[in-house]
Specification:
By secondary structure, the chain is α+β, with helices and mostly antiparallel strands. Helices cover 18% and strands 49% of the residues. Strands 1, 3, 4, 7 and 8 form a five-stranded mixed beta sheet that branches. Strands 5-6-2-10-9 form a five-stranded mixed beta sheet, with no helix packed on it.
């Protein structure tokens, strides 16, 4: 009986320290000849734009998986589920979420929730022009 009580206490202790898988990814995007940037991000992602003194865009994506296993996050990352892709046309770039139809995934614990927060560090020489559009100031 005593051994069973000790094992139960250990199981509770281990379960209380279990965490949902999370990771942060970084990506830089070169803007040499780009004068306008349009953002088109998956609707359920949180996005924040910050100004910074760099010449390129830095994208920081934080992902936390709830009710999922660590291998799921690794798989999603390998499939570039959370990536922003740059489509260039002349001097304009569209930054678009690569996967805009993220299908829900179920696990033994229920539906897997994906909390995605994206911070885009925009060079200081770009100003907001409305509608998730940023334009380079004239030199």
């Amino acid at each position: 009986m005593r051994v069973l009580l000790i094992v139960a206490c250990m199981a509770i202790g281990v379960a209380s320290f279990a965490q949902d898988p999370a990771d942060i990814f970084h990506k830089t995007i070169d803007l040499d000849s780009i004068n306008q940037i349009d953002l088109d991000v998956y609707g359920e992602d949180q996005i924040e734009i910050k100004s910074w003194p760099g010449d390129d865009i830095l994208v920081e994506t934080s992902v936390k998986i709830v009710n999922g296993k660590p291998f799921m996050l690794k798989f999603f990352k390998e499939k570039e589920r959370y990536d922003l892709v740059g489509n260039i046309s002349g001097d304009r770039m569209q930054l678009i979420s690569k996967d805009k139809t993220r299908k829900k995934v179920n696990s033994n614990n229920g539906t897997v929730l994906e909390n995605v927060a994206i911070v885009v560090y925009m060079p200081e020489e770009f100003d907001e022009a409305g509608g998730n559009t940023y334009r380079r100031r004239s030199k």
